[in-house]
UniProtKB/TrEMBL annotation:
Organism of derivation: Streptomyces bugieae
Protein name, UniProt field: STAS domain-containing protein
Stored SUPFAM superfamilies: SpoIIaa-like (SSF52091)
InterPro entries with a match to the protein in the record: Bact_StressResp_Reg, STAS_dom, STAS_dom_sf
Any one Pfam family match given in the protein's UniProt record, by short name: STAS
CDD domains: STAS_RsbR_RsbS_like
Length: 136
């Protein structure tokens, strides 16, 4: 279901959507490897959507912001839509204070809203049954 993470960042496949996340420990070199690995997965697996959960990201710098913008642009050229989900208020404030705009990057409040924007929804389960995510 997921590839062996060369960067330590798992990339999961749910149908035609890839789901991944960013952590603070990702240095510049690892961020470049992550981008390369993600682009390769989009191309080889024909993913039409990517959700990047950044809810565990406590700080952001200009390099990570630029990486997210370039990743989004490249993914779009490969036919995939990218949504960055879970941005914490301090991260948003830092971006604004640094004058950094994530031009072309779609955002969602959380991963669930991001997946919904990519066409996923969670169906209600009858009482006593396990819930399953299903495509619309």
């Amino acid at each position: 279901m997921s590839s062996p993470p060369a960067t330590g960042v798992p990339i999961l496949r749910l149908g035609d959507v890839l789901v991944t996340g960013l952590l603070n420990e990702l240095d510049d070199e690892a961020a470049l490897r992550f981008t390369s690995e993600l682009m390769e997965r989009i191309a080889t697996e024909g993913a039409r959507g990517v959700l990047i959960d950044i809810s565990r990201l406590e700080i952001i710098d200009s390099f990570v912001a630029r990486t997210l913008m370039e990743l989004t642009t490249t993914a779009r050229l490969l036919g995939a839509r990218v949504i960055v989900a879970g941005m914490r208020p301090p991260v948003a404030i830092t971006l604004a204070e640094l004058g950094l705009q994530l031009t072309g990057v779609e955002t969602a409040l959380n991963a669930e809203q991001g997946m919904a924007a990519l066409g996923w929804h969670q169906s209600p389960a009858p009482p006593g049954e396990v819930r399953h995510d299903r495509r619309r």
